[in-house]
Amino acid sequence: MPSVARRDPIALRWTTAEEEQEAALFPDESALGRHVGTGDFAGMEFLHVNARSVVNRVPEGSRVPFRYTVNPYRGCSHACTYCFARPTHAYLGLGTGRDFERRIVVKVNAVERLRAELRAPSWGGEHIALGTNTDPYQHAEGKYHLTRGIVGVLGEARNPFSILTKSTLILRDLRVLAAAAGRATVHCCLSVATVDRAVWRLTEPGTPPPEQRLAAVRRLNEAGVPCGVLVAPVLPGLSDADDQVRAVAAAAASAGAVSVAAVALHLRPGVRQHYLGWLAEARPDLVEETGQRFAGRSYQPEAEQARVAALVASAVGVAGARRPRPPAPLGGGVRRGPDDRAVARHPSAARRAAGEQLRLL
Ligand code: SF4
Question: Which atom of ligand 1 is the closest one to the Cα of 204?
Fold first, then answer.
């Protein structure tokens, strides 16, 4: 077990409850302690909190295809340079760079809270999306097993759910996921932004290699857990060449993905500064053009979204995949059996659904 650090040299809003009376975390959380990682988790820090509730309701008016989410972790050691969740760490007084990647907030009571909330008479069994904020199968999950517990509870309750992840750690829970898929509507999605290993190493340093993620897609589907691929985000100047997009889409189709969708990079305030700052170090030659693309806006022109979607659709077709119904929405919809195999007949709809979940990331 990791040791417990009583003090931290950096002034954090996050602190133990007895040290600070004012709300130091999100309003529905109370702090338990700070644990320094050792062994495989050396260099990391885990901020344990008790959440008063773990099923979060998406704000009214949101266009996302689900109304409820559960996120057992905040911060993510996958350390994707473009990560849309980075600004959430700033709410805690933590940095959106290294802190986001190494200081992980852990809702240690997430499983028991979820069980209680699903039993509440007011709960209507609605779909729950996992992976809308940070990755539920990030490295911390190897230590805390919260996502595994959550999947088990959802399966026991026959509650529909979906998971979006970049991690092959999901395969650790293959059996529990397959059991849940036999009892409820379940949909998984592996995010694979590129199969270009150089780009992968540069932009997603904490994630498993893309080919391992695609192998995970195959194994999940073979085990009866419907799993698609989200090609996201497509990065300007790094992974947006036609042949790069086609390559990852074709690989996804070949891996048996039940859906394939792509999302062009978007950069909201906060994330934009981080990404452009990183780009200035890693690929200064791309700074000017990328900056111009996002000058005064978070999203690229619709034409770029359409281009990426069309590339995916054509690549999937070339890969010889069957053309079924639109991809299962990330917010629900189980597809089982041979009729459910791949892909992207309606890429714009897929992109919208995928983009909405990704936007939450
Ligand atoms: S994009 Fe997803 S996997 Fe990558 S750091 Fe953010 S939450 Fe983690």
Answer: 4
The residues, ordered by sequence, that sit 6+ positions from 301 with a Cβ below 8 Å of its Cβ are none
Q: Are 174 and 200 in contact (CB under 8 A)?
A: no
18 C-alpha vs ligand 1 centroid, how far in Å? 32
- Kindly report the protein residue whose alpha carbon is nearest to atom 6 of ligand 1: 83
Please provide the distance, in angstroms rounded to a whole number, between the alpha carbons at the two ends of the chain.
30
- DSSP H helix total and E strand total for the chain: 13, 11
Nearest CA to ligand 1 atom 4: 80
CB burial of 72-98 (b: ≥16 within 10 Å; e: otherwise) equals: bbbbbbbbbbbbbbbbbbeebebbbee
Query: Which of 135, 199, 263 to mutate to test ligand 1, by most ligand atoms within 8 A of the CB atom?
Result: 135
Which residues' Cβ are closer than 6 Å to ligand 1? 76, 78-80, 83, 85, 134-135, 138, 166, 361
Q: Which domains does the chain have, with CATH numbers?
A: 29-360 (3.20.20.70)
Residue whose CB lies within 8 A of the most ligand 1 atoms, among 71, 73, 78, for a mutation test? 78
Q: Are 283 and 237 in contact (CB under 8 A)?
A: yes
Query: How large is the greatest C-alpha to C-alpha distance in the chain, in angstroms?
Result: 61
The answer to whether the predicted template modeling score (pTM) of the entire model surpasses 0.85 is: no
Instruction: Provide the residue-wise pLDDT of the chain in tens; the chain has 361 residues.
Output: 332 223 332 323 333 323 333 334 566 677 778 899 999 999 999 999 999 999 999 888 777 778 999 999 999 999 999 999 998 888 788 899 999 999 999 999 999 999 999 999 999 999 999 998 899 999 999 999 999 999 999 999 999 999 999 999 999 999 999 999 999 999 999 999 999 999 999 999 999 999 999 999 999 999 999 999 999 999 999 999 999 999 999 999 999 999 999 999 999 888 999 999 999 999 999 999 999 999 889 999 899 999 999 999 999 988 764 544 444 434 333 333 322 233 333 333 333 444 433 333 3
| 80 Cα: distance to centroid of ligand 1 (angstroms) | 5
Which atom of ligand 1 is found nearest the CA of 133?
A: 7
Ligand 1 pocket test, candidate residues 44, 76, 204, most atoms within 8 A of CB = 76
